[in-house]
Amino acid sequence: MKKKVLILSLVTLSILLILGNFRWVDLESSVDFRYKYDRWAGQKWVDFYPPLASTNSMEFPLIYIDEINQDTLETYLHKQALSGELANTWVERTRITDGYVGLLLLNILAVIWSGFKLVILRNQKKERLS
Predict the structure, then answer these.
(1) For a 10 Å CB count at each end of the chain, is N or C smaller?
(2) Residues 117, 122, 125, 127: what is their CA dihedral angle, to the nearest 10 degrees?
(3) Residues 38, 45: contact at Cβ < 8 Å?
(4) What's this model's pTM, rounded to 2 decimal places?
(5) Nearest-CA neighbor of 33 among 20, 44, 18?
(6) Tally of CB atoms within 10 A around 15
(7) In degrees, to the nearest 5, what angle opens at C-alpha 43 toward C-alphas 42 and 45?
C-alpha cells in the first residue's frame, strides 16, 4: 500500500512539473517588448524593458489588445488600472499560480512522507527478522 502511494505521488509530481514547463508560450518580441501567452489563464502578457533600465522589466497583461508600443503604453496602463481590469487579471494569474505551487508542495510532502514511511517499515521488518 505504501509503495502505491509513493508511486502515485511520484507520477503526479512528474505530471505537475511537466505541466509547469508548458504554461508559458513565448511569442514575438521587439527591442523593448517581449510577449508571452499564459496557457492556463488564457491571457497574453508583455514584459516591457524600458530603454534606460538595465535588466529590470515591467510585466503586465494585454487586455483587449494584441500588442502595444511605447507611445500608447502609459495611456493603456492608466485606463486598465482605473477600470480594475489590470488588478483582476493579476489576481486571476496569482490564484492559478498559488494553486499550482500549493499542489506541487503537497505532492512533494506526500513523496517525502511516503518515502520515510516505506524506509521505516522496511527497517522495522528487518529488526523483527533479526
Answers:
(1) C
(2) -100
(3) yes
(4) 0.79
(5) 44
(6) 11
(7) 150
